[in-house]
Amino acid sequence: MLTKDGCKRRRARLFAALPDEVEWVVIADPRHVNYFSAFFVNPISFSTCERALLVLERRGRATLLADNFTRRAACTEPFVDHDETGRWYDHKTSVQNRDHFLFKLLKDATKKLTTASKGRGLLELEWLPVAATQEAGLDTSLQTAKLGSVIRRLRRRKEDDEVALLEQCMQACEAGHAAALEMVEPEVTELDVYRAVQSEAVAAAGRPAIVYGDFRPVNAVVPKRGGLPTTEPLVRGDLLILDFSVQLDGYRSDFTNTIAVGPPTEGQQQLFDTCVAALEAAEKVLAPGTTGAGVYEAATRVIEDAGYPALPHHAGHGLGLGHPEPPILVPESEDVLVAGDVVTIEPGSYIEGVGGVRVEHNYLITADGYRRLSNHQLSLTRD
Known about the structure:
Creatine Amidinohydrolase, Chain A, domain 1; Creatine Amidinohydrolase; 2 domains; five-stranded mixed β-sheet; four-stranded antiparallel β-sheet; 10 helices; 16 strands
């Protein structure tokens, strides 16, 4: 889980990135409410898709705004100074529009701030509805900075508590990959594999988790496809591209292995070995200052030198609260790696007459290079 110290460090970094006259901000994106306070509505709850707002003050005070049902759906206890939870539903009276209830809480909170503070406020307008600003009487014409964009830039540099949470996601993901490698064989269905992956991942996490990604097989005729699993059985000669994430408290892992259904052909093994070599080549250039285009070039060069077409998709991407997020590792990327980035490397190749392969690991960019965060086995077979 995120920590109190981590949330405070992220808040301090936010105000350091904003103009001095900004004394308070309203955070509206649920991911960013989580980022600064550890409040995240459990997606496996009655209040999934509901939201809270967070008011942060430069002096250090944090106030959470939420209705009572949304508040009790938190994954963990948030790190805030003031919990402005309003009673929206009491099991006795009818309820009002839940959004308007939240906007009323916002109006009360910001009225106090505009009265007490000489500085101005900044709103995360990318996620704050127009109706909220109108009902709260907030002047959007004074918004000179795009708060959401500032926060997204800050998100690239992960604090220690974020890395620890990501590693929890990855350990659960590793357990899922190990389970799949043991059970994939002809006549097992895609859904059977998904159920095994989910079961082992949740057991490893020790709490409910979301498992999503690609659970579809490819073959010599259809070398590339993805998506959620079906009840179709796996067929001898298929390659199951198992590319999935485990999400905990809004953060996620994301790594891949390709598993042969039955003994792999010589062509499939050659394609797999090439993709692993491409991953290892890209891994070697990971360091602060390396461009996203440079990582892509390192991966695709190995694939092309082996006689296959250029890498047809990104060589990887940033990872954290979003999927994907910067830096993006593509031919024309202008992104540059920085210490604190968490990235994937995922070379793949999809060849008619052979099949498709993709492999992937996750990495933390450090001051002098990288640390690999994922430790699953890259192998076509369990042997």
